[in-house]
Amino acid sequence: MKDSSKLLEELNARSREVFRRVVESYLETGDPVGSRTLTRTMSEKVSAATVRNVMQDLEFLGLLDSPHVSAGRIPTQTGLRMFVDGLLEVADLQNDDRQKLDETLGSNSGDVNSMLDRIGSALSGVTRGASLVLAPKTEAPIKHIEFVSLAHDRALVVLVYADGHVENRIFSPPPGITPSAMREAANFLNAIIEGRTLSEVNTVMRAEIESRRREIDKLAHDLVESGLAVWDGQGETNERLIVRGRSHLLSGEEEESGLDRIKTLFDDLERKRDIAEFLELTEEGEGVRIFIGSENKLFSLSGSSLVVSPYMNADRKIIGAVGVIGPTRLNYGRIVPIVDYTAQLVGRLISDRTQR
Predict the structure, then answer these.
(1) What is the pLDDT of residue 235?
(2) Cβ distance 41 to 1 under 8 Å?
(3) How many CB atoms lie within 10 A of CB 114?
(4) Reading across the β-sheet that carries 318-327, which strands appear in turn?
(5) What does pTM read for this prediction?
């Protein structure tokens, strides 16, 4: 199959117009488009037979498909990709949409996750799709750490950050851990972690353990190792995926197969191991990206599209992402500026909070 941009270049003006009108009609209605319908909208006067021949050629190229023998055509995944890359006209952000997103700032209180939760709900409401927001990991430098024994199989780790933020996380310590081993492990960590972020601690700590292994006993060593697994993403982490607006995806999906697709989609979303991949989708460049059907490696099913954009902190580092998911016939021209504006909004809010 040829690259979509090369296919577009090879189409003559009539074929390009037929293709564009089929896609635009499909995105608006979700219905197959017939040749007689197109003859009423073409810029030049042509017969239905001529349009039908053009549509057959476009089907041969893999850009259109016939869902039923006697029905009209709909765009294929390749066709949608070509339309998005070469023919999509992105609209300006509507004032009503901007206002609804900006209203989330009116209650700009609470922690970052609460703020992102409100923005996710607003994004879902504006787009009438399911919104996805990847909350950032805490990257503030650590000031102090403590381990607290809760039971023989449960312990609490308390992380105090330089910005005053405190996190308490429960995990399962190695069997046989003692209060003295917990103190020893905390002393060991506090000697090396101050001023470093969690991501920096990982590398430093493992090097320190190798060089100072004899200074900490086996239980303290295991506690440090298991504690790090909790803090740095192999267990519970501060990185989470916020999903809002599932009902929007379910409406209009009355067929049983449609409901099964939606269920599979959210099963995929709720697997914590997939969250990091969501951010990886955005890291190849700034701006909004569109994934159509099976192009989207986060989901195991085709038939859904994701419009996603990263957001950045004050240092222009990508720390999270926001997006909208829906059927492949999303109104891309309207959704793209909304996602772009939301990502910029989240980035500004997080930067403002970290600079206070």
Answers:
(1) 41
(2) no
(3) 12
(4) 241-244, 130-134, 318-327, 304-312, 289-292
(5) 0.70
